[in-house]
Amino acid sequence: MAQNFRRYKLRNVGTVAADIPDGANFDSFDTIVGIHCANRTSNSITVDVFITDNTTSEGGVGSTDTAGNQEYYLIKGAPIAAGGALQLLDGGAKIVVASGDRLFVKSDTASSLDVWVSAVDAIST
Protein backbone atom coordinates (compact mmCIF):
# COMPACT_ATOMS: atom_id res chain seq x y z
CA MET A 1 0.00 0.00 0.00
CA ALA A 2 1.39 3.41 -0.98
CA GLN A 3 2.02 5.98 1.72
CA ASN A 4 1.19 9.66 1.33
CA PHE A 5 4.07 11.52 2.95
CA ARG A 6 3.49 15.20 3.71
CA ARG A 7 5.69 18.03 4.90
CA TYR A 8 4.56 21.17 6.65
CA LYS A 9 6.77 24.12 7.47
CA LEU A 10 6.63 27.49 9.22
CA ARG A 11 9.18 30.31 9.34
CA ASN A 12 9.68 33.03 11.92
CA VAL A 13 7.27 31.68 14.54
CA GLY A 14 7.02 33.99 17.52
CA THR A 15 5.07 34.56 20.71
CA VAL A 16 1.65 33.75 19.24
CA ALA A 17 0.94 30.03 18.78
CA ALA A 18 1.05 29.11 15.08
CA ASP A 19 -0.60 25.98 13.71
CA ILE A 20 0.66 23.38 11.29
CA PRO A 21 -0.85 22.70 8.78
CA ASP A 22 -1.34 26.46 8.59
CA GLY A 23 -4.91 27.36 9.49
CA ALA A 24 -6.23 23.83 9.07
CA ASN A 25 -7.03 20.73 11.05
CA PHE A 26 -5.62 17.35 10.21
CA ASP A 27 -8.19 15.76 7.92
CA SER A 28 -7.90 12.06 8.76
CA PHE A 29 -5.95 9.67 10.94
CA ASP A 30 -2.41 10.85 10.19
CA THR A 31 0.95 10.00 11.75
CA ILE A 32 3.47 12.68 12.65
CA VAL A 33 6.91 11.13 12.19
CA GLY A 34 9.10 14.18 12.77
CA ILE A 35 9.02 17.64 14.35
CA HIS A 36 12.15 19.77 13.95
CA CYS A 37 12.40 23.20 15.61
CA ALA A 38 15.31 25.54 14.81
CA ASN A 39 16.31 28.74 16.60
CA ARG A 40 16.94 31.51 14.06
CA THR A 41 18.35 33.98 16.57
CA SER A 42 21.64 34.68 18.32
CA ASN A 43 20.01 34.22 21.75
CA SER A 44 18.55 31.21 23.56
CA ILE A 45 14.78 30.72 23.23
CA THR A 46 12.17 28.42 24.75
CA VAL A 47 9.47 26.67 22.75
CA ASP A 48 6.12 24.98 23.29
CA VAL A 49 4.61 22.36 21.00
CA PHE A 50 1.08 21.13 21.62
CA ILE A 51 -1.90 19.48 19.96
CA THR A 52 -5.49 20.56 20.39
CA ASP A 53 -8.16 17.89 20.40
CA ASN A 54 -11.57 19.11 19.34
CA THR A 55 -13.38 16.20 20.98
CA THR A 56 -14.66 16.94 24.46
CA SER A 57 -15.81 13.40 25.24
CA GLU A 58 -12.46 12.48 26.82
CA GLY A 59 -13.01 14.93 29.65
CA GLY A 60 -9.35 15.88 29.78
CA VAL A 61 -8.00 18.24 32.38
CA GLY A 62 -5.70 21.16 31.87
CA SER A 63 -5.75 24.21 29.68
CA THR A 64 -8.03 24.84 26.74
CA ASP A 65 -7.71 27.17 23.78
CA THR A 66 -10.13 29.96 22.95
CA ALA A 67 -12.46 27.55 21.13
CA GLY A 68 -12.65 25.26 24.17
CA ASN A 69 -10.41 22.54 22.71
CA GLN A 70 -8.13 20.59 25.05
CA GLU A 71 -4.41 21.37 24.75
CA TYR A 72 -2.01 18.42 25.06
CA TYR A 73 1.64 19.52 25.32
CA LEU A 74 4.29 17.46 23.58
CA ILE A 75 6.89 19.75 25.13
CA LYS A 76 6.59 22.96 27.15
CA GLY A 77 9.29 25.55 27.81
CA ALA A 78 12.02 23.59 26.04
CA PRO A 79 15.24 25.62 25.68
CA ILE A 80 16.97 25.87 22.31
CA ALA A 81 20.43 27.45 22.26
CA ALA A 82 21.31 30.26 19.86
CA GLY A 83 21.43 28.82 16.35
CA GLY A 84 20.53 25.37 17.72
CA ALA A 85 17.72 22.95 17.03
CA LEU A 86 15.41 20.50 18.77
CA GLN A 87 14.25 17.23 17.23
CA LEU A 88 11.03 16.36 19.07
CA LEU A 89 10.46 12.83 17.80
CA ASP A 90 13.39 10.45 17.66
CA GLY A 91 14.18 6.79 18.06
CA GLY A 92 11.24 5.80 15.87
CA ALA A 93 8.63 7.65 17.97
CA LYS A 94 5.42 8.66 16.21
CA ILE A 95 2.26 10.57 17.09
CA VAL A 96 -1.13 9.65 15.66
CA VAL A 97 -3.56 12.53 15.15
CA ALA A 98 -7.23 12.33 14.21
CA SER A 99 -9.43 14.44 12.00
CA GLY A 100 -9.94 17.82 13.67
CA ASP A 101 -6.71 17.78 15.71
CA ARG A 102 -4.33 20.72 15.29
CA LEU A 103 -0.60 21.02 15.98
CA PHE A 104 0.71 24.33 17.39
CA VAL A 105 4.18 25.75 18.02
CA LYS A 106 5.17 28.86 19.95
CA SER A 107 8.37 30.60 21.04
CA ASP A 108 9.04 33.05 23.85
CA THR A 109 10.75 35.39 21.34
CA ALA A 110 9.29 37.16 18.29
CA SER A 111 10.20 35.76 14.84
CA SER A 112 12.70 33.30 16.29
CA LEU A 113 11.64 29.77 15.31
CA ASP A 114 11.51 27.72 12.11
CA VAL A 115 9.55 24.46 12.24
CA TRP A 116 9.44 21.46 9.91
CA VAL A 117 6.91 18.65 10.41
CA SER A 118 6.92 15.35 8.51
CA ALA A 119 3.75 13.25 8.46
CA VAL A 120 2.08 10.32 6.77
CA ASP A 121 -1.40 11.25 5.56
CA ALA A 122 -4.45 9.02 5.81
CA ILE A 123 -2.82 5.99 7.45
CA SER A 124 -6.13 4.19 7.99
CA THR A 125 -7.61 4.13 4.51
Q: Would you tell me which CATH topology applies?
A: Jelly Rolls
**How much β-strand is present in the residues?**
over 45%
User: What's the total helix number?
Assistant: 0
Q: From the coordinates shown, what is the CATH architecture?
A: Sandwich
Helix content: under 10%
Number of strands: 9
Distance between the termini: 10 Å
CATH superfamily: Nucleoplasmin core domain
Name of the top-level CATH class: Mainly Beta
Q: Which residues sit in consecutive blocks of at least 5 with pLDDT less than 50?
A: 57-62
Outline type: globular
**Strand-and-helix sequence, N→C?**
EEEEEEEEE
**Count of the domains:** 1
Mean pLDDT figure: 85
Secondary-structure content class: mainly beta
Largest sheet: 5 strands, antiparallel
Indicate the radius of gyration in whole angstroms: 14 Å
Describe this structure in words.
There is one protein chain. The protein contains no helices and 9 strands. The strands form 2 sheets. Strands 1, 3, 6, 7 and 9 form a 5-stranded antiparallel sheet that branches. The protein has a 4-stranded antiparallel sheet with strand order 2-8-4-5, with no helix packed on it. The protein starts with a strand and ends with a strand. Helix content is 0%, strand content 51%. The chain has a single domain (4-121), classed as Nucleoplasmin core domain (Jelly Rolls, Sandwich). The chain is globular, with a radius of gyration of 14 Å. The relative contact order is 0.43. The chain has 125 residues and is an all-beta fold.
